[in-house]
Amino acid sequence: MFACGRAVNAHIESKKSKCDYLLDQCPSDEQVRLIVNQVNCVINQHLNVSDELMSRNDAMKVVDLSKLPAEATQMLRVVRVGDYDACACIGQHVTNTSEIGQFEIISHDFQEGKWRVRFRLV
After folding, report:
1. Which of 7, 22, 34, 58 has the most CB atoms lying inside 10 A of its own CB?
2. CA-CA distance, 21 to 58, in Å (whole number)?
3. Is 47-95 the same fold as 1-44+100-122?
4. pLDDT for residue 85 is more than 90
5. Is pLDDT at 27 greater than 90 in this prediction?
6. Under CATH, which number does the domain 47-95 receive?
7. How confident is the model at residue 5 (pLDDT cuts 50, 70, 90)?
């Protein structure tokens, strides 16, 4: 929606999570409602979530590795959410989006070009 790319920072927990995005301005209330609806539409597609080990060279053709820590190994785990998304990740994942519940934004704020969104899955 905002052509801002992936979150520049994320902290994901089971009770609540947050992500930061670099934006020109704070999303309007209507845009926030659209975000919630769009995320839930993707979740409701019941997309399979899979992972694959691949070399850095192969992974860089599929995902952005710019935030990869220097100490990361040459073999990377790439997690795919259907044909919707792919990312390098070491975290735990469901096997299907139907397992995560519905997305809900708890709060958000905007300061100095950074939009912080706090959310949970219910």
Report:
1. 7
2. 27
3. no
4. yes
5. yes
6. 3.30.54
7. confident
Q: 5 vs 118, which has greater pLDDT? A: 118
List the strands of the sheet with 75-81, edge to edge.
49-55, 75-81, 85-88
Domain boundaries, the chain: 1-44+100-122, 47-95
Buried residues in 87-109 as b, exposed as e (16+ CB within 10 A): bbeeeeeeebbeeeeebeeeebe
| Residue carrying the six token digits 């259907």 | 82
Taking residue 76's Cβ as centre, other Cβ atoms within 10 Å add up to: 22
Confidence band, pLDDT 50/70/90 cuts, at residue 70: confident
Task: State which H helix or E strand residue 104 sits in.
Answer: strand 103-111
- pLDDT tier for residue 1 given thresholds of 50, 70 and 90: confident
**Distance of alpha carbon 48 from alpha carbon 2, whole angstroms:** 26
CATH class of 1-44+100-122: alpha beta
115 phi and psi angles, rounded to 5 deg: -100, 120
